[in-house]
Hints:
By secondary structure, the protein is mostly helical. It is built from 17 helices and two strands. It has helices at residues 3-17, 24-33, 39-42, 45-48, 61-87, 93-112, 115-118, 123-131, 142-151, 172-177, 195-214, 220-225, 229-232, 235-264, 279-282, 285-288, 299-303; strands at residues 265-266, 269-270. It has a two-stranded antiparallel sheet with strand order 1-2. A hairpin with a 2-residue loop joins strand 1 (265-266) and strand 2 (269-270). The protein starts with a helix and ends in a 16-residue tail after the last helix. The relative contact order is 0.11. Residues 313-319 have low confidence and may be disordered.
Amino acid sequence: MNKEHIDSQISKLEEKYKDSGQDLSSYLDGLLYQRYLTYWDYIHLDTLLSIQVPRTHFPDEEIFIMYHQITELYFKLILHEQKQIVDDKTQDVDFFIEKADRINSYYKVLISSFSVMIKGMQREQFMQYRMALLPASGFQSAQYRMIELYATPMENLVHFSERDNFSSKNSIEELYEHIYWKKGATDVVTGEKTLTLKQFEYRYTPRLIRIANEVKNSTICHKYQELPQKSKDNKTLVEALKALDVNANINWPLMHMGSAYRYLTKDNAQIDATGGTNWKEYLPPSFQKVVFFPELYTKQELNNWGKQWVDHIFNPEKV
Ligand code: HEM
């Protein structure tokens, strides 16, 4: 190797470590003694593969656990991109589009892989091991709620039946009390909150309120609204944001609901593997009508929100 090049690298390293209190020579010793990095250490593979721990002896429970874990990792990837949009000060449209496209590609994986749940487990096994997991439910996914908070102002997350009575003038705490998901995971007979909902609120309310306050004026929706008009009119950006909305609030929820129907109804009657929650009234996207970027749609599009699988707004090359 070129000696001059190495000398220059050494002087750069000297410069780098100058102010650290230790000299370069000590760091070079460290380099000499360090073990080679392996794939399995780098990605913490042993840890990753040790956290699928079933509560019953039904083999399919492992599929259920793993697919939830995989989904949570994708949620983390989505949040990772969302945070970069929220933190961005440049208003660079290409950057915005790139991040939204990445989020959409993660949703696409989640949507197309949901067959792992819908077709991939024996119903008889599910019905039995699911009872051993109560009151735990994907409903308690905090990352799912965080994605919503980063995407849109809290007033857009108020339950549809009350949304018109609230605006950005209400405090985060007030809006939070009326957030749509507080109507979910309630007992279908008594209308009372189930333990699923109560435990989730107890564990995550402070964190969710803190995040909502942090992004009070800088959600992805705000970031879009604050762009100069020319950028707001950028067709690719608008399409990417609409695709994100439809992925998060229609197509994923419909796939997910497909699994609820497969496992939790029999001859169209509800069975109790959720512990008897109101999921049939709560889950349909056309009832929830959660929309992250309402200004991108016509009144009619908003009225028909979630009534069907949506793919017509997608640019086929993008999906
Ligand atoms: C066989 C598979 C599944 C079934 C039968 C199922 C069933 C349900 C039901 C009935 C609810 C409504 C709340 C309740 O009543 O407990 C729910 C909510 C939820 N589940 Fe699942 N689920 C399945 C898989 C998943 C997976 C793999 C995830 C990924 C993390 C997930 C995430 C969620 C989320 C985020 C909610 C809340 C949705 C909302 O608030 O609109 N579920 N699920």
